[in-house]
Design brief:
Layout (H helix, E strand, L loop, with lengths): L4 E4 L9 E3 L1 H14 L5 E8 L5 E8 L7 E5 L2 E5 L4 H4 L2 E7 L4 E6 L12 E2 L1
Parallel strand pairs: 2-7, 3-6
Antiparallel strand pairs: 1-5, 3-4, 4-9, 5-6, 7-8
C-alpha cells in the first residue's frame, strides 16, 4: 500500500481520513488520464440518502473547498470535505475487477450497518 503524503488547506492538522489501495490508485490514475485532464482529483464524500441513511459519493473534481483534507497517493490526490471526514476516518477504498464484483469498494470501520446492495450505510 502506498504511503500518503498529506496536505491540508486549513491550519489544523487532521489525521488521514481515507486510505487508497495501490490497485485503486492505479485505476483512478487511468480514469483521470482517459479524461485528458491533469487538474482532476478523486473527491470522496458522504451525503444523506440511500436506504440506510448515508451514501458514499466518489467523483472527479477540480475544486478546492475550505477545510478540504487532501491526501496524495503516488500522484493521485484524494480529497475529503470537512463534513464527510469524520464518517470516512480509517475507511479504505479498493478496486475490484473480478467476475463476481467490479468497481470501487469502501471498507468503512465507522459504518454500523449497511444496506444489502452496499450503496449506503448508517
Amino acid at each position: 500500500m502506498t504511503t500518503p503524503a498529506q496536505t491540508e488547506s486549513t491550519e489544523a492538522k487532521a489525521p488521514t481520513s481515507v486510505v487508497l489501495t495501490d490497485v485503486a490508485a492505479q485505476k483512478v490514475k487511468a480514469l483521470i488520464e482517459q479524461e485528458g485532464r491533469d487538474d482532476l482529483r478523486l473527491r470522496v464524500a458522504v451525503q444523506p440518502g440511500g436506504c440506510s441513511g448515508l451514501r458514499y459519493q466518489l467523483f472527479f473534481d477540480e475544486r478546492s473547498l475550505d477545510g478540504d483534507i487532501v491526501t496524495d497517493y503516488d500522484g493521485v490526490e484524494v480529497v475529503v470535505d470537512r463534513m464527510s471526514a469524520p464518517y470516512l476516518a480509517g475507511a479504505t477504498i479498493d478496486f475490484a475487477d473480478r467476475i463476481d464484483a467490479q468497481g470501487f469498494t469502501i471498507d468503512n470501520p465507522n459504518a454500523g450497518s449497511s444496506c444489502a446492495c452496499g450503496d449506503s450505510f448508517s
